[in-house]
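Researcher: Before we compare anything, I want clean individual predictions. No alignment, no superposition, just each chain on its own. First chain goes here; please echo the sequence and then give the structure tokens.
Model: Echoing the first chain and its structure:
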Amino acid sequence: MKTYALVGKQLDHSFSQRYFTQFFETTGRSDCRYLLAPTDTLVDLQKRVVAEQWQGFNVTIPYKQAILPMLHSMSDEAHAIGAVNCVVVDSQNRWIGYNTDAPAFRDTLSPLLKPYHRRALVFGTGGASRAVTYVLKQLDIDFLLVSRNPHDDKQIAYTEVPSLLNDALLLVNCTPLGTAHSPFEGLSPLPSTLPLSSRHFCYDLVYNPSPTPFLLQATHHGATIQGGLPMLYRQAELSWEIWSGES
């Protein structure tokens, strides 16, 4: 049995196992399985990977950066981003890291962009945010990171957001705010009173629930929205291509 998994801290919200289980069934891969592997620490992960003979795994919050010291190597793109969400386990149990978040975000963002989406606010500074800002740089979209604790000139506090909404028409939520079955359920990175417009494009990497509280706010103001489910599916497809060598 070929084993793949999702590693993260809290996975009650995840659709990944459902996606891969259905994929394996519909493509006749009865020798493959996909597990949810919630863990409070990465210390014992290596033992489990060896014991259960995993071929690869995905990584989610909060381990996309914490996993880096455990890798034998990583792709050039993952190295440039500084975060990994897909790991291949080779025949010698060496871990090779990749980032499928970035191309999945790019593929699901680009078709919806308008010429006036040239400035962005990115909520959050974790591993997902690194993939998002990597793509924004490629697309020549200027951005600022919104953080609870800003510490450089590319980061701002949440209190500064209202004054920037006239120019920053692309808003991307990379925080877990709004995630179902989590302490963040029902929350949004934006207060409901902020004046969005039909020119705003609001992208939420959170995919459960759909729509999220953030996207419900955006819809109320006529903004373009994109939830995280297409990105989830796209990064899963790319992960499988990496694990299997298929394309």
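Researcher: Okay. Second chain, same rules.
Model: Second chain and its structure:
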Amino acid sequence: MSYPMKLVAATVEAVWGGKRLMNEKWNKHTNGSNIAESWELSCHEKGESIVVNGEFSSRRLSGVLEENPQFLGKKAREFSFFPILVKLIDSKDNLSIQVHPDDEYALKNEGEYGKTEMWYIVDAKKGSGVYCGFKEPVSKQKLEEALKDGTVTSLLNFIEVKKGDCLFIPAGTVHAICGGILLCEVQQNSSVTYRLYDYDRIDASGNKRELHIGKALEVIDSDKVVTPNENSKAIDGNVIQLASCKYFTACELTCNEEYVLNVDEDSFVSLTVVEGGGAIMADGNCISLDLGDTVFLPAGLGEVTLYGNLKAISAKV
């Protein structure tokens, strides 16, 4: 049976994580002291989504899809793995300066796929921003020197961001989310991250976190320039396409009282509510959608109607 499946996220604690997702507004749960990441749509072994309604209630989404591969859709079935991971990220402090490898390098060296990602800014304190790429092309020698003397951030391109901004970050782009930002990330289903610099921070065990400078230097694209909203384009009055690549297409979807979308045979669609709330109905199945909720819509579900006043980030292949 195909129906809209509401998901419960796996949560991740980190030294830079905040507490916004833990309050009643977002209603995420953890046994830790913070929620840095909430893995909203995940079939990754390090944190899986659980279905909480209907026939598949209390089941791992990955198990449901293994038994019902038609729910993935034609495009997603072309991958040997579930291609997408969707997160909410709350950065109280700066994340490490980092880079992700492409598929070729990651498969050869890590046995896992690489990571291209997109950030949608849900909320940002005034003056907060992100590091994305370099101010100008930089040699490996100059970068190594800056890493040794702790001045690497002086080489990076700092972009001040605001609510509603979007950045598309291909593999090989040096980047870091800075403090004061809440965002929704749509990414390849991978956890391969190479840290270059972590501000000499100490973790809960009193140790500095591991750096991966050698591997990072091998995969960095020092010429890459990232500009906010450079890939955004309006699809209709309710939908803005934020980014599209072979791994995912992500959109901002706005519902003002009612909006109908069609989920065809090509791909599943996930919706993560980042503002407001309402409900979703398909084939007589109606479930509530509150702030922070994520729902998985199986491929071929057909017409789906959203009700209420909300913004959601949609993701599909």
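Researcher: What stands out in the second chain?
Model: Helices lie at 61-67, 103-110, 140-149, 213-219. Additionally, The first helix runs from residue 61 to 67.
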